[in-house]
Amino acid sequence: MYYKKGIRFDLWTFVGLISVLFFGIFLVIPVARMIIYAFHTADGAVFAIDNFIKFFKSHQFTRVVGNTLTISLYSLFAGFPIPIIFALILNSIYSERFKKITQTITYMPHFISTVVLVGMILQIINPRVGLYGNIYSHFHNGQFPSDLLANPNFFPHIYVWSGIWQTFGWNSIIYTAALSSVSMELHEAAQIDGASRFQRVLHVDLPSIMPTAIIMLIMRCGHIMSVGFEKVYLLQNDLNLSKSDLISTYVYKIGLSTKGSMDFSYSTAIGLFNSVINLILIALVNSISKRVSETSLW
After folding, report:
1. Taking residues 78-106, what's their average pLDDT?
2. Interhelix angle for 50-57 vs 264-292, to 10°?
3. In a domain, 298, yes or no
4. Nearest 5°: CA angle at 172, between 122 and 219?
5. C-alpha to C-alpha distance for 296 and 208, rounded to whole angstroms
6. What angle do CA 52, 58, 63 make, to 5 degrees?
7. Global pTM?
């Protein structure tokens, strides 16, 4: 540590400067360049909104935005309560050994890579040699079922429920941690009042983790328009494209794929539109939560 012209230099100052430099180079500058590219046009005009107007008027706008919202809201309503319910059930188990084994088993799918997970899904729902095909064939006199991924209506269900299976155990960790801080005196008082185990879960455990659940819901709403690209792209084919073409895959095809137009400015504008909508949603949900429950991110 030393002083120079009234400025104090030490290890933490150095670490702070390196951190600022790192985020400036790898976060601020790329985001700034992305915003600039979004307002570029093919004829060289800068700060024009032609790319946004082009996207809003595109025949793909309704389809890709609708598909994105459908899958995202489906994932939210179906998947958000399951980790909470699982954590409450797990917390009610008295056997510590059984609890640890269950936690380990349910955490493991989280560490499966997206490519491996999609490979597992394709093998399971294979109409000829997969588990789905064999079960169907057994109950239908040797007949084989239709390919689920060839039917666009099945794509959201396959995507959402495979994601829930993979992540519900891992997502329950934060609720399990919150439940561990619940005072046993509350449970003892409820027992004295004659409350059953279910009533204690409903009136003691659940209210205790509600602030955590609200914060997680607010953060989840900030990603409503952002559905993961890799899994969707790997499960996508020409037959289910009407339900599987989302904003993320559309941006890739427009901006980076050789089969698309390679219009980087246009795809960047779509990505910026997506980010702005997410920002508005998280701010709106946070404001509503603050007024209703007095729990918010800021």
Report:
1. 91
2. 80
3. no
4. 90
5. 16
6. 110
7. 0.85
Token duo for residue 130: 């997969």
Q: What are the tens digits of pLDDT across the range 8-66? A: 556 777 788 888 888 888 878 877 777 777 777 666 666 668 888 888 988 889 999 99
Q: How many domains does the chain have?
A: 2
Check whether residue 277 and residue 141 sit in a common domain. yes
Q: What are the structure tokens assigned to 27, written together?
A: 């976060």
What is the DSSP annotation of 164-178?
HHHHHHHHTHHHHHH
Give the CATH number, domain containing residue 222: 1.10.3720.10
Listed as own residue / partner, the contacts of 125-132 with beta carbons closer than 8 Å and 24 or more positions apart are: 125/149, 125/158
For residue 252, pLDDT beyond 80: yes
**CA pseudo-torsion sign 24, 26, 27, 33:** positive
pLDDT of 33: 76
Burial of 198 (C-beta count, 10 Å sphere; 0-12/13-18/19+): exposed
Question: Is residue 44 in some structural domain?
Answer: no
- Domain span at residue 239 reads 49-292
